[in-house]
Amino acid sequence: MGILIQDETVNQNGIKVKDTYGSFSEGINVKKIVNVRVQETTQVDSSNNNGWSIKEPVLNSNGNRSYNEIKDSSGNVIDRILNTESKYFKHVEKESYRLSGRFIIYVSKEIRELSHSKVYVDRYSYPTDAKIENKRYNSLTSYNVSVESENTNDIYKKLYDKLKSMNLFTNYSDDL
Question: In the chain, what are the domain boundaries?
Fold first, then answer.
């Protein structure tokens, strides 16, 4: 699965090529992200979900703290107790995924396929005069693409859609 690109592609050495082929040929990385945030809730929900509570002062209509006054028999204030109310909280987790991959552009689809039949050799196990053919083909250029998603369905489609929205090329067709 890839994209046939009819636009002119220029690599870092200034070489220009038309009718190239690009794909996520080195694979895709999927990273699970769990965001934890605090959410205000009810007393019942808080106790069912390992929540907690805090006491906050009650404010009067002027925005000042409200107090209950304790008076003696003659009406004199002997103590003031701050009015409080309980607020309940719990942790809420939200999972998402970061999908990322390196979109590599090759001269053609055939070159891309040949680039995966790389021959890696240990140069120390051969005589120095031996000729070793290494069928390793370099890419023209590459782009890092990443997208966040709530699920891992259609990973390639999401990355290709993100790549297309980046407007790196205008004349292309899908090669499914």
Answer: 2-35+96-175, 36-92
CA-to-CA dists, residue 45 to 38, 50, 54, 84, 94, angstroms:
13, 9, 15, 20, 18
89, 148 contact by CB (below 8 A): no
Beta-carbon neighbour count of residue 172 at 10 Å? Answer: 17
Bridge partner list, 10: 16
Q: How far apart are CA 145 and CA 160, in angstroms?
A: 9
- Tokens 């001269």 — which residue? 107
pLDDT digits (tens, 9 = 90+) for 119-175: 545 555 554 544 444 444 567 888 999 999 999 899 989 999 999 899 888 888 888
**How far are the Cα atoms of 15, 28, 113, 155, 175 from residue 97, in angstroms, in the given order?**
36, 12, 29, 10, 26
Regarding pTM above 0.70, the answer is no
> How would DSSP label each residue in 102-140?
EEEEES-HHHHHHTTS-----GGGS-TT----------S
Tokens encoding 140: 């023209």
As a whole number of Å, the CA-based R_g of the chain is 32
Mention every residue, 6+ apart, whose C-beta is less than 8 A from residue 7: 18, 169, 170, 171, 172
Q: Tokens representing 96?
A: 């998402």
